[in-house]
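User: My collaborator sent over this chain with a note saying "see what the structure looks like." That's all I know about it. Can you take a look?
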Amino acid sequence: MDTIYSLASARGKAGVAVVRISGPYAFSAARGLAGSLPAIRKAGLRRLMGTDGQLLDEALVLCFDDGASFTGESVVELQLHGSTAVVRAVLDTLSTYPDLRLAEPGEFTRRALENDRLDLAQVEGLADLLDAETEAQRRQAVTILSGALGDLAENWRHDLIRAAALLEATIDFADEDVPVDVSPEVNGLLDGVLTTLAAETAGTRIAERIRDGFEVAIVGAPNAGKSTLLNALAGRDAAITSEIAGTTRDVIEVQMELAGLAVTVLDTAGLRTAQDKVEAIGVERALARARAADLRVFLQSQGDEVLPLKASPGDITVQAKADLSKTKGLAVSGLTGQGVDQLVARIADQLENRVKGVGVATRARHRIAMQIAQSALEDARIEVQHGPGRAEFAAEEIRTAIRALDSLVGRVDVEHLLDEIFASFCLGK
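Assistant: Without extra context I'll predict from the sequence alone. Here is the result:
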């Protein structure tokens, strides 16, 4: 494979910048810069020289041998002084070496996958970790990066291979008297995998929301104080407010972090019979986004109002404009801030309760693969119930499930995904 190099730390002025070189000529290229190299996995201070003999920088040099690096190849990391001029000078010098080329986005991580340093799920976990902005996103990404999904998939694979082997043994001895009925053990293995698969599949949608963010819609009648409440939650004037009913026509989004979770709060148009064509579009959009949201906060300005949207289990109903009237129960005023902290706590509690059901699979790709496996295993159970004469069909359904689960970690049928996945990485990863 080519020897590649790139800046592995963020661009711009910094205290330290890291340039990574990976591939069969990594050590020889580093010697061209530094003269001599420190011992494997030992850092050493070296003077880096350009092709013209001029000093480029003094840097810490760290070497990793084949099989002991992030990529699984020979790797040298140069820890430079983090000025843009130093980084540019070192990269320009490396570009003159005939056996080196600049890495493509995600190429270091792709090599880690190809050299069995990471499985595909771990690669996705690393991408999520690099993008993590909240504590919940960080925890979830670290779990995936640690190999939790791969371990789970391996356990499933072990049990299913055992079940398929038992069935295939009955096929091999179909013309002989086999004293042992394998169906109880096969059914037990299938039931165990199906149970954990169902639980894991159910948790993927919540895991996706942790990664992408929950949506919380504020809904209510016109002039109920929705935009004022949104501004109070955001801590800024994100939405225009006025005493004129129907001021908000489009959906306004504000992103924030609640209880360590990424949340997008939506301010929607007031729900009523529209007075004009433009407001009608706003009301239609408000209803669509509110229905699709993970949680709705119904802001009531008066007790007898009827909205064209019903609350779902877990939704929150709160009395609006608490500064103007005394009411029992949860009441808020976006103008004075009264009750806002309590409302935030209620929203956070609802979302945290949903997060408790999260699994280790985090993406729609994972959910689809597990659903395919579930369907195949349910068909396999039916075939097993029909007796030894259907063992061949049951074994084939199990093999279908194994292939689907193998795709979780990149064993089979994932080539079409790789370019898309690695395109999200920066050059140095």
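A starting point for your reply to your collaborator: The mean pLDDT is 85.
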